[in-house]
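in:
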């Protein structure tokens, strides 16, 4: 079963169970996946579906951060609930120590020697991570390691 089919079947289950938060989040995910399908011009493969869901998760994380700054705890809770549902469909994130090791090897491969080489490292690094780690955290680690070189 594809990710799109799984999301659709999970929505039916949530609907029948009366779980409105999960049902509504799954509806939003289906809409995002449909928009991705329309933009691509073909049915989404699972890797393309994961990219769409990762973008949705990132939007929720950004919203949580902004709502927390604004003191909107009610909206923070809502976004966290939605993020939890979305993350259930994403692959597990790699531990930070494993991410650090990949960053260090990518810095060595790229021959980066300082903060000005951030772009040289981030492109290849994000290709290696392929959604298994948060780009914001990866960027933070790259900056930290390049600053110490």
């Amino acid at each position: 079963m594809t990710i799109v089919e799984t999301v659709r079947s999970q929505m039916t289950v949530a609907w029948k169970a009366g779980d409105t938060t999960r049902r509504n989040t799954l509806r939003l995910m289906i809409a995002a996946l449909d928009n991705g399908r329309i933009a691509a011009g073909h049915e989404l493969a699972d890797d393309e579906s994961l990219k769409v869901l990762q973008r949705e998760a990132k939007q929720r994380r950004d919203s949580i951060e902004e709502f927390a700054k604004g003191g909107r705890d009610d909206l923070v809770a809502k976004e966290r609930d939605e993020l939890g549902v979305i993350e259930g469909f994403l692959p597990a994130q790699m531990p930070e120590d494993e991410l650090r090791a990949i960053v260090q090897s990518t810095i060595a491969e790229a021959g980066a020697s300082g903060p000005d080489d951030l772009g040289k490292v981030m492109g290849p690094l994000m290709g290696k991570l392929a959604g298994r780690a948060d780009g914001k955290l990866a960027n933070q680690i790259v900056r930290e390691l390049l600053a110490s070189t």
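note: Residues 96-147 form a domain with the Arc Repressor Mutant, subunit A fold (CATH 1.10.10.410).
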